[in-house]
Design a protein that fits this description.
This protein is of the alpha+beta class. The radius of gyration is 16 Å and the shape is elongated. 43% of the residues lie in helices and 20% in strands.
Length: 88
């Protein structure tokens, strides 16, 4: 039921950020950029780098569209392919 004068707010759509593996970025580069982009420590960033290398990609972030785009931009800054996709 909608009360007159009140807007019905839609839930904010969430997005995910995926890092795609490549043959030219080093583990150290991936770890450093993940620490910077995601605000995680070395161990978590290392686990992300290992996941990317072993699985060909790794999902590293969920959030609103603007936050996902900001994270993706930092990661892309060193030449890593990143996908930003809506969560269904």
């Amino acid at each position: 039921m909608r009360i007159q004068g009140q807007e019905q707010k839609q839930p904010e759509r969430l997005f995910r950020v995926l890092i795609i593996d490549n043959d030219y970025n080093t583990y150290e580069q991936v770890i450093r950029v993940c620490m910077k982009a995601l605000g995680v420590g070395f161990e978590e960033a290392l686990q992300i780098a290992l996941a990317v290398d072993n699985n060909g990609e790794a999902e590293v972030f969920h959030g609103d569209e603007a936050s996902a785009a900001a994270v993706a931009d930092v990661i892309r800054s060193i030449g890593i392919e990143v996908r930003v996709e809506p969560l269904d």
